[in-house]
Amino acid sequence: MKILKHTLLIVLVSSCATVNVNYDYERQTNFSEYTTYNYYSDQDTGLSALDSKRLLNVLDTAMAAKGMSLSENPDFFINIQSVQFQNEQRSTVGVGVGGHGGNVGGGVSVGIPIGDSKYSRELIFDFIDEDKGLFWQAVAVGSYNSNANPEKREANLKAIVDKVLAGYPPQ
User: Fold this and answer.
1) Rg, the chain, Cα only
2) CA-to-CA distance for 171 and 167, rounded, in angstroms?
3) What is the tens place of the pLDDT at every residue in 74-121?
4) What is the C-alpha to C-alpha distance for residues 66 and 168, in angstroms, rounded to an integer?
5) Dihedral (C-alpha) 47, 90, 20, 65: value to the nearest 10 degrees?
6) In the chain, how many domains are there?
7) CATH number at residue 6
């Protein structure tokens, strides 16, 4: 029963969370030569310590599923950065007051936002060969809820990582 709850939660969160990903890569890269990876030790993901740990765990699992392994002597390094931003509020109600009399006219209008502000997070994944430099990059933008519980946060990060790694290696 508990597994069913978690599965339904993951499906619900991943179906609601829209993640847009843009990819870029060096066309001359032979991606089959990259089988081991690691993270930069001084990496600052821009996430909380717990969310960073969740992200790296989810990424490790997804990389293992692609046949790649974490190594102390890696073929490439992964650098992750993120930025949180507030989406533009598009739903407003206008309230106006105006007057007209003789030669005098005037008016005041105020836009009142409807609903809560929505936040998004941009995550940038850089795959870097120490000898050749940056060879693959994914920029993912998705919704972000700082008040979500740990299970929802992890499910959201998993949805992002799955979509990001769907483009690696490029076809």
Assistant:
1) 22
2) 8
3) 999 999 999 987 766 555 555 555 555 555 555 555 555 555 557 888
4) 9
5) 50
6) 1
7) 3.30.160.670
Provide the residue range defining the domain that includes 68: 2-87+116-165
Burial environment of residue 47 by CB neighbours within 10 A (0 to 12, 13 to 18, 19 or more) = buried
64's CB contacts (< 8 A; 6+ apart) are none
Give the residue from 168, 171, 64 showing the smallest Cα distance to 125.
168
Q: Which of 77, 79, 89 is nearest to 52 (CA)?
A: 79
User: Is-above-0.85 flag for pTM?
Assistant: no
In a domain, 103, yes or no: no
Does residue 58 lie in a domain region?
Answer: yes
